[in-house]
Structure formats: C-alpha cells, structure tokens
Design goal:
The protein is an all-alpha fold. It has three helices and no strands.
C-alpha cells in the first residue's frame, strides 16, 4: 500500500536473535492428604451427599416456577422496544 501513497519502504535491520529462556527443573514431592476431621483446612468437605440431595429436591419446585419467566421477560422487552421505536 506504501507504493500507492508514495511512501518509502521501511528500513530493515539485522534479524532478531532467537529467544533462549533457561528454566530450572520442577520440584516434585509426595502429596500428603490430611487426616479427616481436623478443622477448617483439614481436607474435609462440607458438602455431604445427603445435603446435596436435599437441596436438589427442594430446589426442583423453584426451577419449575421459573420455567416460563424467560419467555415472559423476552415478551415484555419486545413490547418495550416496540414502544420506544414508535416514539422516535
């Protein structure tokens, strides 16, 4: 495109040196799993399967109550956009 506007070719310097990065070897070790029941950071999960099942059962009704909401919101949005377009 430079020839179109009459500009000169950019200057070309020597080729760039190849990148060489030195990295140390990774440190490996043995994973130690903490004993059960030793406090907040002892490797014990608070998510008990029975609690998860209870939550899933209780939230199923809420999911069904929300099932039609996205379509209703889309309809309200479309009506609102239509009113704004008419006002222009």
């Amino acid at each position: 495109m430079d020839w179109w506007i009459g500009a000169e070719d950019p200057p070309v310097g020597p080729p760039a040196l190849e990148v060489s990065i030195q990295a140390s070897a990774p440190v490996t070790g043995v994973r130690q799993t903490p004993a059960l029941g030793g406090g907040a950071n002892a490797g014990v999960s608070a998510a008990r399967p029975s609690d998860l099942r209870s939550f899933a059962t209780g939230s199923a009704n809420l999911n069904s109550e929300l099932a039609g909401k996205p379509a209703s919101l889309r309809s309200h949005l479309a009506d609102s956009v239509e009113r704004v377009d008419i006002a222009r």
